[in-house]
Amino acid sequence: MILYGFEGVGTIAEVIDFHVHPIPxxxxxxxxxxEVGRARVDKAVLLALDIDEYYLDGEYSSMSFLQECVQLNSxxxxxxxxxxxxxLKTCYTSNEYVGDLVRSNPERFIGVGSVNPSKNMSYVxxxxxxxxxxxxxxxxLIPTLQFFNPLREKNKLEAxxxxxxxxxxxxxxxxxxxxxIWEEPSFSENANPSLLEYYVKKFxxxxxxxxxxxxxxxxxxxxxxxxxxxxxxxxxxxxFDISAVPYILMEKKYVEKIDRDIGWSKVLFGSDYPVAGxxxxxxxxxLVKTKSLLSEKNLESVLGLNALKLLGL
Length: 313
Ligand SMILES: [Zn+2]
What we know:
Elements: E1 16-20, H1 29-38, E2 43-47, H2 59-71, H3 77-91, H4 95-104, E3 109-114, H5 121-133, E4 138-141, H6 154-167, E5 170-176, H7 185-188, H8 197-202, E6 208-216, H9 225-234, E7 238-241, H10 252-261, E8 267-268, H11 281-291, H12 296-311
Parallel strand pairs: 1-2, 2-3, 3-4, 4-5, 5-6, 6-7, 7-8
Helix pairs in contact: 2-3, 5-6
Bound molecules: zinc ion.
């Protein structure tokens, strides 16, 4: 595997993967360390996922889930519910675990915590304290798997943003669809980037990364790309990662819009490893390096330099 020395991109200094899921039920810590090393990723941002594995076991939540399925004319609602339950039970990744991974490999790993805004305020405050104590430097929010609407949880989201403002932490916000039933846009509409305008406007000092650039969707790739760009055009604290949507760097229609509307200084490389796309980390980076339509300078920014700036390194 040659990462340095590709024709035309031989000088790329640093690769930072801004979106990695160290989900213990999917990948062991040994395998994660090995893959990051194999891909010659200099730094990997590890995301906790504070999702409630029992959420869909509750009577009320499972009934409303099933009702929404029925509205979609989905043929097998119970199977959808089972799949969604399985995802929640599989993907939980605690703040402590991420903190522990960072402690064991501080040169390579950067830790981002997570807090579930569907829980009550005292839970949210406890989690924020935990994130602070563990020294995690950002917070991941995912309205699909955490089942919240950003504008209906104003008290808790404002508490999270105020915390980030005070402590100098950033937010990574999932945008776009998600696997399984969340491939249905109606299940994922809470992850439309336009719902975040209130917060990025009010909390100008909090840097917010729109994960997947509003675009992830198998059925409708680029589903809320324009909404994501629009936020980026208006607010300088908005960033993007291209995890699970590497085609944004390879297809003319996206590249031209980014060139024209926001430029590349806020776009970050991310992989979503090991959960999306069926790529190994090394092969994904190779793909981006060989197939992107970006100039060498812009590619270098996306692969690492922009992240260094956001991380203050
Ligand atoms: Zn992800």
